[in-house]
Amino acid sequence: MDGGRVVGDSDTCADFDLPTVLAQLDGDEAGPRRDAVETIREHVETDPDACLTAVPKLRRLLSQPDLECHEAVATCLARLAAHSPVDVAPSADEIAAFVTANPAHSATPAAYRCLAAIATERPEALVDHVPSLVDSLENATAEGRTAGTLVLARVAAVADVRLGSERERVLERLATEDPDRIVRDRTRRTLERLS
Length: 195
Hints:
This protein is mainly alpha-helical and 195 residues long. It has a single domain, classed as Leucine-rich Repeat Variant (Alpha Horseshoe), CATH 1.25.10. It starts with 17 loop residues before the first helix and ends with a helix.
């Protein structure tokens, strides 16, 4: 059990060799590890319950700086979080750490989407990360800012979050100057909830 549901308890995991995929995720060889991530990405829509077993291994891969498939890993985690936020919530610390360390990375928008899904069920898992998530928005891509402001809006809607004046200024700039209307709107709503 990793978060709330029994993971890997699916009758349909015969579609792919789950034990082999999990072993490849632990391996040192880049090719088989990348193939295992791709196999999970192919099956996450049709058999997410079986793929939930891989969440701890995927979050560990996300933290490896030399990994060549961060985007695929983050996409898998985002899809799994959309399916079962409670099961992915224990990975919130590692996912938030990736986002804050890599705001402009191509995998960051998917990682933000994962955090946004977690925030629907377990916003308290993200409260301590709000300041660093705000900091990361300044250097995020447009897609990253859109997903990141959704995380902040969801957490601010239910949790008592206090930011310092410097971080509030970051949000105020996003609310008034960001070229994306969605980012401006979400940021304004987040600031209203934080007031």
